[in-house]
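[job 4471] stage=fold_predict status=RUNNING
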Amino acid sequence: MTLKEKTEKILLATGRCGMEGLLLWMDASGFYKSPCSGGHHLAKEGGLAEHSINVLNCMIDLSNSFEGCDDIPQDSIYICGLLHDLGKCGDYGKPGYVPNMLKGRVTKANPEPEPYQSPSKPFKVNECLSPIDHEIRSIKIASKFITLTEEEETAILWHNGLYGNFRYQIPGKETPLYMLLHFADMWASRVIEKEEDHGDD
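[job 4471] inference complete, writing structure tokens
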């Protein structure tokens, strides 16, 4: 089963009204081809979809291990895991990331070198897209098609935890769903995907 097929199957299983429209938007907007970052974890074509599945798998594993997770709806875990970085694929017909092309070194033998894609940071944030935090963009896009619960919105908005722009709003207001998503996102990006990137060296 491809990442696209798995993502669609899981999200449709939530039974959330409007999900079919969201899935069509995701496909048309390049969700399954987008990188997950410019030069960090899964900075490659298809990295965003791979990361989303990794985060969902971590959320499921953690929810089965931690006490107090029984009250978290399964569909909220599916939606937050798979859609928390939705805004990274872009909006308004513009991709969220574009190739990071560098100018070649000019030499006597090669006075007009061809640009090349940076090997250390192959992608960069698309400057033609409004500089809105991807957490906010994720909620905005998803909400065009499906109704998110208050807990889902909060978890997606805060999922970068103290590393994000909402770090001063979080302390003392953490919710179980937010913490589950944040821990899963950190584990996927800092452990699972770091090991995968290292394996490609």
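[job 4471] summary: The helical segments are 3-12, 19-28, 47-65, 74-83, 134-145, 150-158, 176-199.
[job 4471] exit 0
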